[in-house]
Amino acid sequence: MASANAEKDIAEIYSGYAANLTYASLPAEVVSTLKRIVLDTLGTTLAANTLGEGVQPLVEMARSAGGAAESTLIGFGQKVPAIMAALVNGGMAQALNYADTAEWGGHLGPTSVPAALAVAERAGRVSGKEFLAALAAGTELQSRISRTFKLAAGDGPIKPLRTQLWGYFSAAVSAGRVLRLTQEEMHSALGLALMQASGTMQVVQGGDPPAKAIYAAFPNHGGVLSALLSKQGLGARFSHLFEGEAGLFALYHEGRFAPNVLEAELGKEFHLLGVRFKPWPVSGVVHSLLDAALQLAAKEQIDLASVERVQLRGGPEIGPFAEPAALRKRPATATAAANSIFFPVAKALVNLRLALDDFTPSGLRQPEVLRIAERMDYSIERDLANSGIVEVTTTDGKRHVSRVDKPLGHLSRPLSYEQVVEKFLDCATHAARPLSPQKLQEVVERVDSLEQAPDVAALTRLLGSPLSL
Length: 469
Prior knowledge:
By secondary structure, the chain is an alpha+beta fold. It has helices spanning 10-20, 28-51, 55-65, 82-93, 113-123, 128-153, 162-178, 183-196, 202-205, 210-213, 217-231, 248-252, 259-263, 287-300, 325-329, 334-338, 342-351, 361-364, 367-374, 417-428, 437-448, 457-463; strands spanning 71-72, 79-80, 307-314, 376-380, 388-394, 399-404. The chain is built from 22 helices and six strands. Helix 1 packs across helix 8, helix 7 (162-178) runs antiparallel to helix 8 (183-196) and helix 17 packs across helix 19. The longest helix has 26 residues, at 128-153. The chain starts with 9 loop residues before the first helix and ends in a 6-residue tail after the last helix.
């Protein structure tokens, strides 16, 4: 356990870095990665317009609340106060469990892009370069928090819902950088974020209610609120908010953290480059098992009627996604299905694919998939870590086995730029207000040349335009 050091305050150090970070200081690889994060997040947000559980109450609440027309509800076109747009767009961004995932855990785009975009639209005339610098500051902080937690916690039980909890800080920094907060104001924004930060894995372990799907709404709301209050002069500069006796890590991580990760090599080393883009709309914990099932189904061409038993083997992290088994094998909601190890694997074995339409009401009821899922069991093997093994036993006694250590989307097997674009275009077909192919291509091109944009609000205007325009 690390303790607070009176000579060093991590929040003070990072606040100075975030407040003074410029686009010119970002390596080309970082800029390219940030653009992919933006496109990927916009895509998953559009898909959630119509497919995301828990989204409709968010949208209706924001519409009925009133207030200044400052920022766009992405895909719907209506403008609401920036803080409400951050709430709704943040909830949609991760509602389908399809957004990016950081190398060490958590999701970067859903807790930075909605906050930064809402505040940029409110402020007006925020350039693409300023926007990219803001995203770099926020996503880098979350990447470092996730890494320090993972290094210190190892394979122990996960209690906080990491993206939600850490996202308060990435959203506050991203929004704060858009507002050009000073170092002192940025520190206050982080302090205000800590005063709101929350997130518990019990929402996953306790049944996956629809509200779980929109958990990224809350850090975006809290982060934007923190940045705006700080800009208005509300001071919250207290020391050691990360490493103190009652700071973030003491509160949620039993005091465990690797302090050097949070502030070492700032501006020289970018942990955000560890981001991965998901090829499937399910929890990243499931990806190795899912990829193994897809490979097995494609290779073996197993007669589904002959399947007697399917054994899934994975590391400790699959536990919460396997229990309660009855819910995970026959999920009643898309959220529960995306957080199941059984349902996606059964889909892969039956359909040789997994797509967004598999999580619609009719997709959840596919009889053959439910039959295969009922024949599944699982085992946890600590030495498997993030690897997954799928073993199918048929009625003739044959065993068909597939193992994947690094699934598609892993840093060693990343999605290509073309695949990220294809994913965005597919997601966009589910938008509340469908966009023409020409407009979607324009969105892709604008994101690809984001550093040239005089005002990033042009993106939200495009995404709110109906097909007829």
